[in-house]
Amino acid sequence: MPALYGPEYQALRESVSALAEKKIAPFAQDVDENSRYPQEAADALQSAGLAAAHVPVEFGGQGADALAAVIIIEEVARVCGASSLIPAVNKLGSVPLMIAGNQEQKKKYLTKLAAGSGFSYCLSESEAGSDAAAMKTKAVKDGDNWVISGSKKWISNAGVSEFYTVLASTDPGKGAKGISAFIVEKSDAGVSFGAHEKKMGFKGSPTREVYFDNVKISDDRRLGEVGSGFSLAMKTLDHTRITIAAQALGIAQGAFDVAKKYAHERQQFSKPIFDFQAVQFMLADMAMQIEAARQLTYAAAVKSERFESDLTFFSAASKCFATDVAMKVTTDAVQILGGYGYVSDYPVERMMRDAKLTQIYEGTNQIQRLVMARNLDTLTN
Ligand code: CAA
After folding, report:
1. Does any domain span residue 35?
2. Half-sphere exposure (Cβ direction) of 21: Cα atoms closer than 13 Å
């Protein structure tokens, strides 16, 4: 990939891959089986500066650009999807701050994020998933403060993160134009968390409701102008849906690696199953789809870095394409491993379960297609 992918990115890939193999992969199965937080991965990523590498250098981060962030998430996801949500969620939670925060807010929160605080994103509600603007959580002005009440659902890393970007309605009569964004801290009075969701995959990543019981915060926690929150939330997703594409790409690559190795080792009818064209064609298709997803994801990352005008289309397209590829590739990997693929001796069944979520969160793939359709005129080719 010469145009998109220089030697510095290759060096980053190699170092993240080495860390993932050594410090994350050995725990991936246990994390999944016991639905436990991948603490080993969190520690390893934090000490290597990879848990929130996108934080600018001036605030103590690595200043990783969008392509570097993608490569970090991809390489972690290759061995453990749940662990790859640590850098992905930290980016999702903090992009609104990076886009709309003032210098004081950035200094305070990005510095703590680089030091390991964790930053989650609170957009979805029980009755407002795809229709995000239908949110009921309210923020009411009270002198110099805001009082937030309501609840958010399916919040990744809830309870682990110290900080939360919360989208709330400040003018319910105005729909999308009456939504504002705030930073809420886990320690704010009135913040609490629901039970851990029992999920099909990504079992190591905590997903919980977040409750706001008249949480009083000062106006300096507001991100951007009152009423600009929905547009900020959408702009954020333009940058972060690419990280879900990266995650899907990593999961697909991880499953492909296992399936290819297995196909060479597994003997049936006195020869490796790789020698059968039926299996060769499956692996060829898998590799082709992964490479196409990688090219699209990296192209979208470059557009994110440059804030290009067709970013919204490319972000949705990369997320939709790469996650559909991950579902197909992981399902085919299970098929190639047959009975061994369906049991947890090999990681491909976990990867197949993990892949499913990538087609759903940060906007279902139906919503991605809607976003693409609405942005067809931005395409320059
Ligand atoms: N950038 C800037 N502004 C944008 C925008 C973008 N990409 N997309 C929309 N807007 C603006 C619009 O311009 C519009 O403002 P104007 O009226 O001033 O033009 C306003 O926002 C409303 O836009 P729409 O009319 O398009 O809004 P809509 O109600 O039709 O909804 C939607 C659009 C695309 C369906 C949106 O609701 C959506 O993306 N839904 C999916 C939600 C989602 O992705 N949730 C993910 C949760 S996070 C998560 O899953 C994380 C995790 O666990 C890891």
Report:
1. yes
2. 7
